[in-house]
Amino acid sequence: MKKCSDFFDFLISHAKVYGFIFPSSEIYGGLNAIYDYGPHGVELKNNIKELWWKSMTQLHENIVGVDSSILMHSDVWHASGHVDKFNELLIDHKDSKKRYRPEILIQEYVKKNFLDDPKKKEKILSRLSKSLDKQDLIDIKVLIDELCICDPVFKTKNWTEIRHFNMMFKIRNEKDLFLRPETAQGVFLNFHNIVKSSRMKIPFGIAQIGKSFRNEIVARRFLFRMREFEQMEMQFFVLPEEEIKWYEYWKKNRLKWHLELNLGYDDKTYYYQLCDHDHLSHYESAGSDIEFHFPFGFKEIEGIHSRRDFDLKNHELFSKKKIRIVEWKKNYIPYVIETSLGLDRLFLAIFSSSLKKEKLKNGKERIVLKLPYFLSPIKAAIFPLVRKDGLQEIAKKIFHDIKIRHRLVYDEKESIGKLYRRQDAIGTPFCFTVDYDTIKTDTVTMRNRDSMEQKRIHIKEISKIIKKETGFEKILKKLSIII
Ligand code: GAP
After folding, report:
1. How are beta strands 87-92 and 99-100 bridged, if at all?
2. What is the rounded CA–CA span in Å between residue 321 and residue 200?
3. For the chain, how big is the Rg over CA atoms in Å?
4. Average pLDDT in the 110-138 region?
5. Please, are residues 350 and 261 in contact by the beta-carbon 8 Å criterion?
6. Ligand 1 binding pocket includes 295 (Cβ within 6 Å)
7. What is the distance in A from the centroid of ligand 1 to the CA of 35?
8. CA distance 125 to 58
9. Of 202, 254, 366, 473, which residue is 20 to 30 A from 235 by alpha carbon distance?
10. Measured from the CB, is residue 230 less than 6 Å from ligand 1?
């Protein structure tokens, strides 16, 4: 446990020092569970978005995109069930004034205290599960009392009753206006316009990337659970009788997509597992999570849900407008299979599985961010070996000649060894160094981030190598096969 939290502290600090993630409003003391992306973070995040967007819209002829507004008509959230049902359970501790999710308190307690008694553990968890299904808040509270669960800091049992807590952020002074808690509703509201304008035929999908907001009770673990975050969602509209077929298809497709990112390098299957939902959200009739092995254990990274006609039917009811597919002699509300991936969680998965401390042959240690090349914030760095004898001018010329094609940096601020280490730490796949031989032979040394091997190549080759090795083409080719 200590090891995991040490690594996590190191990760958070690395993300800050190297310009990936900063705490929001830091000079004012920060804001709980809100983070900003720094210069390298935003590049990495944009690359992740681009890959997902291309995977969805470019590789599937029957998926189109949309970018809907964050604020929507207040009736949307009544129709979608979020006003009544988008709740978490909440319990307050009267001494510490801290808020907890009671089911998490119980699960964590049982995990910690009944390691050697699996039968008892199972019995308690099954009782919890039944009470959650029945929303029997009294029994959940009784369970907390029976287990004598204390506040982790105050070590007392001074709990309030359990109650429901709505997770949506309401906008002050605006009657019933909310920040959206999922991007999906913007897709459902645009369904009709997209069918008409894009001439889409069932089955087809609508993809969207955008911000969502949730008033999380226990917001923690860095980017994992935030109050403002981004989702990459795709709603796929199908014939009702083909619900199961497409639900199974998208579960497999999305898991393969994650595996193709090749995170973690060693045994890649170890990093993912697919789990069916024990408790369904108010909108879904079936659901599974793709879980990733984060530094704090297996946790959900993406959800695949069958929402059937829950949303479109309710929007018909509330708006009194028909939202239907009219084809041949059929007139029906299609079913929806949804894939919902948290962009920030994927960022954290990529960042945590790529960050390594490596022992070098000379006994020293290096920190290296072994990102997949196509996601690296900076694709290549150009350095002069020394700041004299015209080497800077040649290096700058190379940089300016190819910067329109690739995201590069030019750096001359430190010794070559330190420049390499800095690029390792931000995950740059290649460094090109101009030295005295460059003047005679028009060649530079090319150093690879992972092997640290160096070889000489002609200046003319630089751009081609960067394109071939760090572009999206290779990975998109692989991903196009899984469709
Ligand atoms: N439209 C369906 C939906 O929103 P969800 O399971 O509530 O489903 C989907 O969320 C994904 O969004 C999750 O798998 C997770 O990756 C991400 N997500 C949800 N809440 C989050 C939070 N508070 N912080 C960061 N990511 C979150």
Report:
1. antiparallel
2. 20
3. 26
4. 93
5. yes
6. no
7. 16
8. 44
9. 473
10. no
